[in-house]
Amino acid sequence: MSSSSKKSPLYTAYSGSALLETPLLNKGSAFTADERLAFNLAGLLPPRYETIEEQVSRAYMQYKSFDTAINKHIYLRAIQDNNETLFYRLLQQHLEEMIPIIYTPTVGDACEQFSDIYRSARGLFISYQDRHQLDDVLRNATKRKVKVIVVTDGERVLGLGDQGIGGMGISIGKLSLYTACGGISPAYALPVMLDVGTNNEKLLNDPMYMGLRQKRVNQAEYDEFVDLFIQAVKRRWPDAIIQFEDFAQPNAMPLLQRYRDKICCFNDDIQGTAAVTVGTLLAACRSKNAKLSEQKVVFVGAGSAGCGIAEQVISQMVAEGISEAQARSQIYMIDRFGLLTDTTPGLRDFQQALAQSSAAITDWSYSSEFPSLLDVMNCAQPGILIGVSGQAGLFTEPVVRAMKKGCAMPIIFPLSNPSRQVEATPEQVINWTEGDVIIATGSPFAPVAYNGRLYPIAQCNNSYIFPGIGLGVIASKARLISDEMLREASKTLAAASPKANNGEGGLLPAFTELSALSKQIAFNVAKVAMQQGLALELDDAMLQQKIEDNFWLPQYRHYKRVSA
Ligand SMILES: NC(=O)c1ccc[n+]([C@@H]2O[C@H](COP(=O)([O-])OP(=O)(O)OC[C@H]3O[C@@H](n4cnc5c(N)ncnc54)[C@H](O)[C@@H]3O)[C@@H](O)[C@H]2O)c1
Ligand SMILES: O=C(O)C[C@H](O)C(=O)O
Ligand SMILES: [Mg+2]
């Protein structure tokens, strides 16, 4: 790849130090002699003209000099805030090495330490106090033509609970993947943090904490604020995709239900997670010649992710030919107090439809009020176990061994993030099942050597889904994101599984394949959107062309000057 793209020149009114301080435009030492003259840069840069490849070499050398993941993260974020093209070029060249640094697990530390490691502004911090001037706030965004917004209120960041303003780290991380893996130009990507306070006492008492120093506002105030935000976005960027990220359980589903038919939005933790998990389950079932509809599925954590996945699993089982009632009878949701049944008090409405009938478990033996995870393993003998509890260590040795007794090749997905919240490590699961297991985790884990075999560990993370959905929506100008579009993303992912296709290799494609996979997801998802009348009518060649045209690559463009 050359360091300057063949694209037409970009006209800009910026010059001098303002140009160097604009991360979307800054090329640093790669500004050519002509550009340095035209843009008043003489003397502001070391004299040697460098290619982007040379800049990447230096940046990588510096990156390597940091020995902790968080310091590497801070370093990469500094490059992002200084020169976005260089940041994405560096990432493109070292994707597998750097994704765990800009995304899970390190992004979890970055959220927890957000105020301590804060260096410079990015995105929009919209506090409750700004609620009557939201149009002004949105007008201040450095990005003018926003197409994707990742918004959080920081109340449930990964499995780390309420991180207040630190949630901004996750919005930034998700959008970095939109660009690195889905080709969405960084010029179109806006991270947003809605600061309504925090209930995290540690943060409230931390003198460094940069967010509103108050408890979270009450529900009525919250709902009104979020609605004002959504309406302001609709006025400013009517076609933008809004991705809800890491909202806590009481708000995640209600917000999705309130807005999903009105604006182009989705909840990543409910729908993105469901899409990636069903896709990975389909691949896992196919690789052992089984059908998903034949399986009993146990979830540990009946929250946004667990219930979102469970509903999609049920849809998939029905699509395979069993009745909905039968499919529901094969789902076991376990939360803090054990199995959810129709006698469990205080269930949320989205949990109720997933509760087991107490009549179905009358012949089970268990000692507490509701069956525990171990009871469910012994009595239901499931083929699939999914962890989305955010609680480390819940898949204990007795639990995994009990599961193995009832199933020759269990499918076990401890999906909680970041790595330290995982329900069991891959190494433990492989040891306790004597290697007869299909495993995927939410955060990255190194391959595990067991009995002379090396087990690659698939990362079942919604990052396989959202970049492609975003690209497909942008290319086809889809108005909404439907369940059918998400199901299509699952199918596309499952079809790309090396293990299911060839009997060996990873359960999911490597992250280095993500750009190609995202284009495929974009294409298939856009076709479904068109069939549903939700998008532009394009023939296949035109759609393909739109996807390519919208796929931004980290290459410098030539600049020409316009007068201010
Ligand atoms: N891999 C992925 O792509 C992915 C996507 C989304 C969420 N997640 C992870 O899943 C976890 C949960 O996310 P969520 O959005 O569903 O959160 P959530 O808060 O909505 O749900 C978590 C649920 O776990 C339950 N729980 C807590 N302790 C438990 C215990 N000891 N036993 C059983 N259940 C228990 C809680 O009561 C809650 O209902 C997080 O760690 C998150 O990082 C992973
Ligand atoms: O952020 C991730 O890595 C996945 C998911 O959205 C989560 O909340 O854990
Ligand atoms: Mg999330």
Please explain how this structure is put together.
- The chain is α/β, with parallel strands linked by helices.
- The protein has three domains: 93 residues, Up-down Bundle (Hemocyanin, N-terminal domain); 162 residues, 3-Layer(aba) Sandwich (Rossmann fold); 294 residues, NAD(P)-binding Rossmann-like Domain (Rossmann fold, 3-Layer(aba) Sandwich), CATH 3.40.50.
- The protein is built from 25 helices and 16 strands.
- The strands form four sheets. It has a seven-stranded mixed β-sheet, with helices on both faces.
- α3 crosses α5 and α7 runs antiparallel to α10.
- The structure holds nicotinamide-adenine-dinucleotide, (2S)-2-hydroxybutanedioic acid and magnesium ion.
- (2S)-2-hydroxybutanedioic acid (LMR) binds next to α14.
- Its cofactor is Mg(2+); Mn(2+).
The largest β sheet comes out as: 7 strands, mixed
Would you identify the regions where 5 or more consecutive residues have pLDDT less than 50?
1-5
Number of domains: 3
Percent of residues in helices comes to 40-55%
Shape: globular
Bound molecules: nicotinamide-adenine-dinucleotide, (2S)-2-hydroxybutanedioic acid, magnesium ion
By CATH, the topology of the largest domain is Rossmann fold
CATH superfamily of the largest domain: NAD(P)-binding Rossmann-like Domain
The strand order across the widest sheet is 9-8-7-10-11-12-15
Rg computed from alpha carbons, rounded to a whole number of angstroms = 24 Å
Mean of all residue-level pLDDT scores:
96
Please tally the helical runs, counting DSSP H or I stretches of 4 or more residues. Answer: 25
Cofactor: Mg(2+); Mn(2+)
Enzyme class: oxidoreductase
EC number: 1.1.1.38
GO molecular function, one term: metal ion binding
